Amino acid sequence: MDFQEVVERRRSVRGYGRKKVSKRIINRLILNAGKAPSACNRQPWKFFIVEDRSNMNKIVSALQDDLPSRTDEISKKSEIAQKLLQDFYQNLWNAPCVVFVYREITGDETTKFYDLLSIGCAVENLALSATNEGLGACMSGGFKGREVDEKLRKILNVPDNYELIIGITLGYVTDNFKPIKIKQKELKDILNYI
Ligand SMILES: Cc1cc2nc3c(=O)[nH]c(=O)nc-3n(C[C@H](O)[C@H](O)[C@H](O)COP(=O)(O)O)c2cc1C
Atom 27 in ligand 1: which residue has the minimum CA distance? Predict the structure, then answer.
C-alpha cells in the first residue's frame, strides 16, 4: 500500500472478525513498532500479546470489575460511544488479539515524558503497519483503571519494573465495519507559519 493510503486508511477499529492474526504478522508489527525513534534510543517499550480465550476472559472480567468506577464518565458519552464501550467491556469488540504496551521504569523518572512520546511513536508504527497488513487496531486507554493495572500485571506476568501505558485491540476488520464519523481539524486550525 502507498504510504499516503496507509495513513488515510488507518482508523480506530472497534469490531473484529474471528480470523486469527498469524504470529508471523504479529512479529512483523512488533518489529516495526520497535523501529520507532526513541529518546536517547532508550527503546523503553515491552509488548505483551494475548490471544487465548482463557486470558481474554480474565481480562474482560478484570475490566468489568472496574466498570462501576467509570459509570459516571461513561454516562456522559454519546449513545454511539456508550454502545461501543458496552461492547468493549463485554467482549473487547471480539478482537482475536490484544497488544499491551508497557514502559520500563528506570528509577530516573525525569525520562518519563520522553519515554511516553517514544512509546507513542512505536504505537503509531504498529497501527500503520497493521493497516498495511489489512488489519484494524484501536488504542484503548480503557484498559487502564484503578485496579485493572494490577490484575493485568498478574494475568500477563509482567515484572514490577514495567508500567502499563496502553492496550491495543488487533484483528481483521468485519465486512460491515464502518469507522465512526470524526471531524478532522483543518490545516488552518493546526498550522502556523511565522
Ligand atoms: C492514547 C489513545 C487512547 C485511546 N483510548 C481509546 C479508548 O479508550 N476507547 C476507544 O474507543 N478509543 C480510544 N482511542 C481511539 C480514539 O478515540 C481515536 O483515535 C480518535 O477518535 C480518532 O479516530 P481514528 O483513530 O479513527 O482516526 C484512543 C486513542 C489514543 C491515541
Answer: 11
Regarding the beta carbon of 131 and ligand 1, being less than 6 Å apart is answered no
Nearest CA to ligand 1 atom 23: 12
Report the percent of the chain where pLDDT is more than 90: 79
If you measure from the C-alpha of residue 142 to the centroid of ligand 1, how many angstroms do you get, rounded to a whole number?
Answer: 10
Note the pLDDT tens digit of each residue in 87-140: 999 999 999 999 999 999 988 889 999 999 999 999 999 999 999 999 999 999
Domain containing 63 — which CATH number? 3.40.109.10
Task: Give residue 151 CA to ligand 1 midpoint distance, Å.
Answer: 23
CB atoms within 10 A of CB 142: 19
- The answer to whether the beta carbons of residues 20 and 31 sit under 8 Å apart is no
Q: What is the pLDDT of residues 137-164, one digit of tens each?
A: 999 998 988 789 999 999 999 999 999 9
pLDDT in the model for residue 139: 97
Rounded to an integer, what distance in angstroms lies between the CA atom of residue 54 and that of residue 81?
A: 27
C-alpha to C-alpha distance for 120 and 98, rounded to whole angstroms: 17
Q: Which domain holds residue 160?
A: 3-190
Which ligand 1 atom minimizes the distance to the CA of 143? 8
Number of domains observed in the structure of the chain:
1
Phi first, then psi, for residue 63 (nearest 5°) are -65, -40
Which residue's alpha carbon is nearest to atom 6 within ligand 1?
Answer: 140
Of ligand 1's listed atoms, the one at least distance from the Cα of 88 is 11
